[in-house]
From TrEMBL:
The chain crosses the membrane at residues 175-198. One of its GO terms (biological process) is extrinsic apoptotic signaling pathway in absence of ligand. One of its GO terms (cellular component) is mitochondrial outer membrane. Gene3D superfamilies: Blc2-like (1.10.437.10). It comes from the Eukaryota. Residues 58-154 form the Bcl-2 Bcl-2 homology region 1-3 domain. This is Bcl-2 Bcl-2 homology region 1-3 domain-containing protein. InterPro entries: Bcl-2-like_sf (IPR036834), Bcl-2_BH1-3 (IPR046371), Bcl-2_fam (IPR026298), Bcl2-like (IPR002475). Belongs to the Bcl-2 family. GO terms for molecular function: BH domain binding; channel activity.
Length: 201
């Protein structure tokens, strides 16, 4: 019963807040920037586990994307131009350039929102952080939420994001890759078991 109460929108909202706040916490600033003054809360232990595991996966994928450098360059070029939801959405659309939605691209979008928040703080326009949160959530609700629900909700994202995590990591030995796959497989299996147990209650 508890699992039926999981809200894909609520998980997305709490997850986005967490991803953005984690990145902002790494920015040296005299005034700490808080993504949202409204308390974002999940409504069950199951949702909390989903948010925590997804945040960890997005962090790994995002770190690999950041090393590329191209994303930061694109964001730098747009920071001064982000004066409205339309201009922000134009940047966000680059994540889904060929109109193909995947779990990986949704993870990258959440990471990109955090990077943009960091850039506007560095550019001394921290008031834009709350707009970025609002605009991203509106994009999420209108363009991605339906896709997420049709693809089984956030619970179904773990397998693909785990695969992406391994692919994005720097080259390593076959043994290390196998070890990570086994570890991630355990995380996924644990999530599935928890989900099934939650359904029985």
């Amino acid at each position: 019963m508890a699992c039926a109460e999981i809200s894909d929108y609520r998980v997305g909202e709490v997850l986005l807040n967490r991803v953005m706040q984690e990145q902002l916490n790494e920015v040296p600033s005299d005034v700490p920037v808080v993504v949202s003054t409204k308390t974002q809360e999940v409504e069950s232990d199951q949702e909390q586990k989903i948010v925590s595991q997804l945040a960890m996966m997005i962090r790994t994928i995002g770190d690999a994307v950041k090393k590329d450098g191209k994303l930061d360059d694109a964001i730098d070029g747009m920071v001064g131009k982000m004066t409205s939801q339309t201009s922000y959405w134009n940047l966000v659309e680059k994540v889904f350039e060929d109109s193909q939605i995947t779990w990986e691209r949704i993870a990258v979008l959440f990471y990109v929102a955090g990077r943009i928040a960091v850039k506007v703080v560095i550019a001394n326009i921290p008031q834009l952080v709350k707009d970025i949160l609002k605009w991203t959530l509106e994009y999420f609700r209108s363009k991605l939420l339906d896709w997420i629900q049709k693809h089984g909700g956030w619970m179904n994202s773990f397998a693909e994001l785990a695969r992406v995590q391994v692919e994005k990591m720097s080259p390593m030995s076959t043994w290390s890759s196998a070890f990570i796959l086994v570890f991630l497989g355990g995380v996924i299996l644990g999530s599935v078991i928890t989900w099934k147990l939650a359904r029985r209650t």
